[in-house]
Amino acid sequence: MGYADPKQVGTGLRQRLYSRAFIVGNVEHPNERFVYLVLDTQSGDTAVRYGIITALKELGPAYASYSHHNIAVTGTHSHAGPGGWLNYLLPQITSKGFDHQGYRAIVDGAVLSIRRAHESLQPGYLSVGTTKVLNANINRSLFAYLANPEAERSRYNVSTEDDGSVEKDLTLLKFQRASDGKNIGVLTWFPVHGTSMLGNNTLVAGDNKGVAAYLFEKSIRGDDTAAKDFVAGFSQANVGDTSPNVLGAWCEDGSGQMCSFENSTCSDGRSQSCHARGPFFRAKDDGASSCFEIGKRQFEPARALYDQLNQNPVPVWGSLVKSFHTFHNMSEFTFVSKGKEVQTCPAALGYSFAAGTSDGPGAFDFTQHDGNENTTSPVWRAVRYLLKAPTDKQKACHAPKPILMDVGEMYTPYQWTPNIVDVQVFRAGQLVIIVSPGEATTMAGRRWKEAVHSASTILFQQEVNSAMDPSTVPPPVVVIGGPANSYTHYITTEEEYGIQRYEGASTLYGPHTLDAYINVTLSFLPFLGARAAKPPRHEGGVYPPDNSNRSLSFITGVIRDGTPFFKAFGNVLTDAQTLYRCGEHVKVTFVGANPRNNLRLEDTYAAVEKLDVKASKTGYEVWKRVRDDSDWGLVFHWRRTGEVMGTSEVDVVWETEDWAEPGVYRLKYYGDAKSLGGTITPFEGVSSPFTLV
């Protein structure tokens, strides 16, 4: 999910996807709390959020504190996850509609993570810090970024490595329980797109954020400073125009040239050959090596900051915890900005939306920046009018965006994109978290954060009583997290919008979208004050639709699984060699079955087992699991080999690490086969032992 390519059909698992839940509450007022979820998904979602809130209500009175106001459902923006679970029609089209199995897995996993966090609630301490992350992101739409005022840009141009075109700051919140001083988790914010795994990748993965979380949690095992169930969440920030492909965009047409600066095209005037390059782009692994490296580049400074905060904590001030959430109709919102009355528009996407980006170029003859009905085939003009012709009023409202799809005014068979958006902010002491439903660009995020910082500074000073020294009140620490709760595509500055590259064309509600978000945010911000009343209830207000039970689906189910003649499920077709060296790949092929028969949540499809030589001296072989499919280096591939007979094969590949212990190992495969009558039967397959030296 993310590249919107119907040909990108999943074939296996590179890395398990997780929901990581963080709950912050006020010890003195326990009902004042919030839940910040980090899902290894493309974004948050309206239907998913509705599903989570409904499930929490069903858990009973102990969960009555959780509601729309204090639950944020954010996604890491991985483009390597399953599709088919989003609420609105447009993102469902390329995934053949709505997949109830995937939707339920996301909702159930999120609820389980909240339950575990809730059940482990106890008094503790928060500390917060910031560090630099270098060489992990660049601006993929620098031409649009440079349209922002030079004076504004110069404020962020710190050095050659940190020139301000993207944010290099990573903010980390550390959770420490009071009972024994053990750390129980970290939550970080840093902007970089989840597009390290390329558009031709078909293996599920959490992309670079998933790698960073995996490395952090792995590094903590056995650490005396941390609790056993330590959780590391790597959340997105103002991610809109960032890319993890730090070597830039190049033409893959044999010319050896970089893509054009203005519109990301190559010598043929098209965008299809323009591809951004990660640090290990020459590796033929669909981006896996680059993905791991960009994840590592986030993990290492985050871990160093964690260690620093252990030695010199910067505490979150006081015990105040506040939150608000509102649904806001962006279709025709009139407000005052910079001294004049302006208005947002019903959602629409411009021609450059269809051009894609250098992280994942689009199809046909669409280009960024200069895409319109005069530079593309007349076919697209006809398609636009067949779907829904924008009115003159809509065209004027979105100008200078040339409208390709008037999605905010398309309701057949149900709504194509949201017009009602989530606006939400959390506060814990001096930490203020803007929960954004869209992908704010670098400068858009800065303006949003600065507006909240200024208003929060005033709010904090108003909380100072006569017995307090105002100088002891720390300044606000403002972060932005998302895309969350719904998915409202992009949020650019008005200047970037005028350039109409991909991000501007994907800014749904017109040129004043950012200012509208800021306006609504600031109007509700006083509810985060220490003496503020509770924010308004949602009852009686506008609500976005929940399409989960009426969405179309053309995803075919599993009919049956079969085996080749004289074979059984789990039989080895290609076995391991007898000897491997560390760094080599071990590959075993099994007679398989469709993995959709059982998603094996909280379980595994594959494992590496090591022979315990000492324990085996009793006369029985004792094998201990040392890897499962949550490990980056153990890869699960599935492929259908016969449609009529329903036969399939599975490759379990262990990309042995340089640091792997020498010894005797074997690979295992766990599958589930479906009969024609619908019965699902589990089975296992195991390779011959092999030696790793």
TrEMBL record:
Q: Where is the Neutral/alkaline non-lysosomal ceramidase C-terminal domain?
A: 531-692
What keywords does the record list, in alphabetical order? Hydrolase, Lipid metabolism, Metal-binding, Sphingolipid metabolism, Zinc
Task: Kindly state what the record says about how the cofactor is bound.
Answer: Binds 1 zinc ion per subunit.
Q: Which GO terms describe its biological process?
A: ceramide catabolic process; long-chain fatty acid biosynthetic process; sphingosine biosynthetic process
Give coiled-coil spans as residue ranges: none
Q: Does the keyword Transport apply?
A: no
Q: According to its UniProt record, which reaction does this protein catalyse?
A: an N-acylsphing-4-enine + H2O = sphing-4-enine + a fatty acid
Q: List residues binding Zn(2+).
A: 77, 193, 439, 490
- So where's the catalytic machinery, residue-wise? 243 (nucleophile)
Q: Does the keyword Metal-binding apply?
A: yes
Q: Which InterPro entries match?
A: Ceramidase_alk, NCDase_C_sf, NEUT/ALK_ceramidase_C, NEUT/ALK_ceramidase_N
Tell me where in this chain the Neutral/alkaline non-lysosomal ceramidase N-terminal domain is found: 1-519
Documented EC number(s) = 3.5.1.23
Give a Gene Ontology cellular component term annotated to this protein: membrane
Obligatory cofactor(s)? Zn(2+)
Family according to the record: Belongs to the neutral ceramidase family.
| Protein name (database record) | Neutral ceramidase
What organism is this sequence from? Cercophora newfieldiana
Phylogenetic placement of the source organism: Eukaryota, Fungi, Dikarya, Ascomycota, Pezizomycotina
